[in-house]
Automatic annotation (TrEMBL):
Domain of life per record: Bacteria
GO BP, sorted A to Z: iron-sulfur cluster assembly
UniProt protein name: Aminomethyltransferase folate-binding domain-containing protein
Upper lineage: Bacteria, Pseudomonadati, Pseudomonadota, Gammaproteobacteria, Thiohalorhabdales
Keywords: Transit peptide
InterPro entries (UniProt xref): GcvT/YgfZ_C, TrmE/GcvT-like, YgfZ/GCV_T_CS, YgfZ/GcvT
Protein species of origin: Thiohalorhabdus denitrificans
Length: 347
């Protein structure tokens, strides 16, 4: 992280925890802002960002990801995943047109693994992959008024719905999910001014509040803790628009297509709440059963205490009302509503 940018964040009250910001001095108030669905903004510079360029980049990405990348060519960001040959999600990502090619934004803890795998498939194609993490300051924005805050951050006057917007100083990218959310990218030298402009419309928050906002949007962050744990349908990528069944072949496509055509999905993504001790990768059990019934994908504190999480769980177990609990955590899990419809297909 550029020293000037880090100093600017510290001057605005940022408290660090490792590579990310824990809070801006009022953790409870920041969670309360998410609860009220107010606009919030947080730095996301510790996440992975890979750019892909070249004359064959579109066909290359088509052969590696679960979704049709062509809409990104015309400005619409694409939610997608890269799979193992067995159809398991190695990493989830957002793909969007950027600079003279495309950008892939995803959890940083899978950056090395994903970059190595993608480069392995480049072979002799005219495709170049570049680590762009240090090239751009990134701000996440969520809640009512997030679009206005994002436009101010990148120096743009108006956004086209569901399209990438380019402003005088940066780029604004809509994020997937039913709750308004955006990613702003600006050069490091514009980072302090971008955050200051966003602050006129959104409250600065740390990573826990941002994670809570994304959990409430029902959008999973599929990184190292759950890598190769699920097929994409189980992570709700279908209702979130992250899978194309007509785009043609890609790594793991046979498993995804077979699951779709058989119409039997045993697990899916749920939103849950617990008293304490929830974390990504944790196994979930049902009372009286020895076999794990699912896994926590991500978790964040909730206002008033306790935590909320996204978890992939067995559908029949949830529908039976079995008492669920996370391994090593105190208390049980309560299943909460997601903000979008999901077809129930227990099999």
């Amino acid at each position: 992280m550029e020293a000037r940018w880090r100093t600017a964040l510290e001057n605005q009250g940022a408290h660090w925890e490792g590579a990310c910001i824990r809070d801006f001095g009022d953790p409870a108030g920041e969670l309360g802002a998410v609860e009220a669905e107010s606009a919030v903004v947080t730095p996301l510079d510790d996440r992975g960002l890979l750019t892909a360029t070249g004359t064959e980049v579109l066909s290359f990405l088509q052969g590696q990801l679960t979704n049709d990348v062509h809409p990104a060519e015309h400005g619409t960001p694409v939610l997608a995943a890269h799979l193992s040959p067995k159809g398991r999600v190695l990493a989830g990502m957002l793909v969007f047109a950027f600079e003279n090619g495309y950008a892939l934004e995803f959890p940083n803890d899978v950056f090395d693994q994903l970059t190595k795998r993608l480069r392995m498939f480049v072979l002799r194609a005219d495709v170049a992959l570049h680590d762009a993490r240090a090239d751009w300051v990134r701000l996440g924005l969520s809640g009512a008024g997030a679009e206005q805050a994002g436009l101010a951050a990148v120096g743009a006057g108006q956004a086209v719905p569901d399209r990438v917007t380019r402003g005088e100083t940066g780029t604004l990218v809509p994020l997937p999910g039913p709750i308004p959310a955006f990613l702003a990218l600006v050069p490091p030298e514009h980072g302090p001014a971008a955050l200051e402009a966003a602050r006129a419309h959104a409250r600065p928050v740390g990573r826990p509040a941002w994670e809570l906002a994304r959990i409430r949007a029902g959008v999973p962050d599929l990184g190292a803790a759950v890598s190769e744990s699920f097929i994409p349908q189980e992570a709700n990528l279908e209702p979130l628009g992250g899978i194309s069944y007509t785009k043609g072949c890609y790594t793991g496509q046979e498993v995804v297509a077979r699951t779709k055509h058989l119409g039997r999905l045993k697990r899916r993504l749920y939103r849950v709440a617990g008293d304490s001790g929830l974390e990504a990768g944790q196994a979930v059990y049902a009372r009286g059963q020895d076999q794990a019934q699912g896994r926590i994908v991500q978790a964040a504190p909730r206002p008033g205490g306790g935590l909320e999480a996204l978890a992939v769980l067995r559908i029949e177990t949830v529908e039976a009302g079995a008492g669920l609990y996370a391994e090593g955590a105190e208390g049980g899990l309560e299943v909460l509503a997601l903000p979008y419809a999901v077809a129930e297909e227990a099999g």
